[in-house]
Design a protein that fits this description.
By secondary structure, the protein is of the alpha/beta class. Helix content is 31%, strand content 21%.
Length: 316
Amino acid sequence: MIKVGIIGAGRIGRVHITSITTRVPDAVIKTVADPFLNDETAAWAKSMGVEHTTKDYKEIINDPEIAAVLICSSTDTHSPISVEAIKAGKVAAVLLAGGQGTRLGLDKPKGTLNVGINKDLFLFEQLINNLLDVVNQSGAYVPLYIMTSDKNNNDTVAFFEEHNFFGYDKDYVKFFIQSMAPSVDYNGKLYMESTDSLAMSPNGNGGWFTSLIDAGLDKDMESKGIELVNVFAVDNILQRIADPSFVGATILSGADCGSKVVRKCAPDEKVGVENQSQECYIWQKKILISVFQIALWLEMVKMILLPEMQLVAGAY
């Protein structure tokens, strides 16, 4: 039997309490938390078989018996939590920018691509603008760590310096170089840079963490008291970086890891795919997912959830 915790007992919370108690036979709602909990709501929850009600969501987060957490509180309750964390210096951002813009017809760092129509607008510039939105909202800078590669590090650093970091305080920006790996074709044949040396390429976005450690920046994060890191790629200029609603929801859920995704337009759309196999649980004790998948995930969690791990669901 899977024990579930629900944060928020308003309309959406009641919908999911009803759905889980009536449609998911192998799940039981152990605790419902709502800061505005009253006697009527507590009595209703008890009538639905809820074991315990509280005003403190942390009771759910800290309960080792609860394997799934469903966030049903309104979105406007998420941002204040994140803003306080940013002001306290606990949130950082890591920009993955080790690639070249070759496929875009640019033999320079991808982030230097000019996508402006009526005026210059570079990928790096727009990403900084997005992050500055959060800086202006919170009144505090978010430490930014930019991963480059051997091939584009000098060009990337020079580009930021040339444009005065696009208005971002340079004291909050650090660069580090990701590791390289031999380039191969689809048959595994090695490419050669020259007759006596292998062609090397950045080892992919998955290498960001070990590369950051190799650069000693994990110690920098630790010294700053950073606890939450928003990792994002250079390609998506529409993304909200250190998004207060998303970061707040992740904090509120108690998740070790959160992931914000969008549905593919078509099955053959050439974009990255979120891995929903068992392997994606190996490094996290709690995972933040969409509430719309809760019934499916509650079913899956019985089959693949390791004993010491917890599943966390959130809605935004």
